[in-house]
Specification:
The protein is α/β, with parallel strands linked by helices. The protein is built from nine helices and twelve strands. Bound molecules: adenosine-5'-triphosphate. Adenosine-5'-triphosphate (ATP) binds at residues 12, 15, 17, 35, 37-43, 83. Keywords: ATP-binding, Hydrolase, Nucleotide-binding, Translocase, Transport.
């Protein structure tokens, strides 16, 4: 599903948290959102998810204004995993993932084999099948994070919004979750702090002080000059001795 932000601004008590942000992701693309702490990534995610209304501008999902969709219609199209997402504690891992099926259920459409299949598939994708019956309270931070992502995948959204999904994850699961997201046919917007992980996405948008300062392909948006200026460091592009894609190395300026 195509997502577009048109001239989005958002203020709280007269303070501008986002100013005139325009960006889009095409169906199936993975768009990385990067920027320093407090630059507005989570705020933008919440506007894209319809969890907050922009002060100005519009969010269009598959060319339809989000503001015109009902909560249920939004839930059938958009899944979000927020930073510090938490869940009631007396519940099993599997039940958390089953919550992802809620937007598709109704009195006329009770739980079916298809729902069970989607939950199984999501648990497999995040490599958490073996934990399905565990109590939520007994799980580690990374295991909970993977289950939140599984819950979002079980929702079968057209747009997946992930706010720092690799937080808490060991390097194997960081790479495997990002790989899985990039390979999904679903459009994804992913807030990331690891700029080298952002380099592996289809497109990158760079926020600074609530404004969009660069966007485009990773090579266009994440130039050493832009990264140095936005993060107040010195960035250099380097290549492994064995060739391969360039990546960034960082030093304090
Ligand atoms: N309700 C609010 N009232 C006042 N300021 C707020 C409110 N919510 C967020 N902010 C401020 O807006 C700015 C953007 O916050 P946001 O959480 O979007 O940043 P972020 O880029 O996701 O940061 P991080 O990388 O630290 O997660 C921050 O300075 C934050 O303190």
């Amino acid at each position: 599903m195509r997502i577009e932000a048109r001239s989005l601004s958002f203020s709280v008590r007269g303070k501008a948290l986002l100013s005139d942000v325009s960006l889009s992701a095409q169906p199936g693309e993975t768009l990385a959102l990067v920027g320093p702490n407090g630059s507005g990534k989570s705020t933008l995610m919440r506007l894209l998810a319809g969890l907050a209304r922009p002060s100005q501008g519009d969010v269009l999902l598959a060319e339809q204004p989000l503001a015109r969709l009902s909560r249920r219609e939004i839930a059938q199209r958009i899944a979000i995993v927020e930073q510090q997402a938490d869940t009631a504690e007396r519940i099993t891992a599997r039940s958390v993932v089953e919550l992802g099926r809620t937007p598709w259920l109704s009195a006329l459409r009770p739980w079916s084999g298809e729902d069970t299949r989607q939950v199984d598939k999501a648990l497999r994708t995040v490599e958490m099948e073996a934990f399905a019956q565990r109590e939520w309270a007994t799980l580690s931070g990374g295991e909970r994070q993977r289950l939140h992502i599984a819950r979002a995948l079980a929702q079968q959204p057209g747009l997946l919004l992930l706010d720092e999904p690799t937080n808490h994850l060991d390097i194997h699961h960081q790479l495997s979750i990002l790989n899985c997201v990039r390979n999904l046919k679903v459009t994804a917007v992913v807030a990331l702090h690891d700029l080298n992980q952002a380099l592996t996405c289809d497109r990158v948008a760079v926020l600074s002080g609530g404004r969009l300062v660069a966007s485009g392909t990773p090579q266009q948006a994440l130039t050493p000059d832009t990264v140095s200026e936005v993060f107040g460091i010195t960035a250099r592009q380097v290549r492994d001795a064995g060739g391969g894609a360039p990546h960034l190395s960082f030093h304090l300026a």
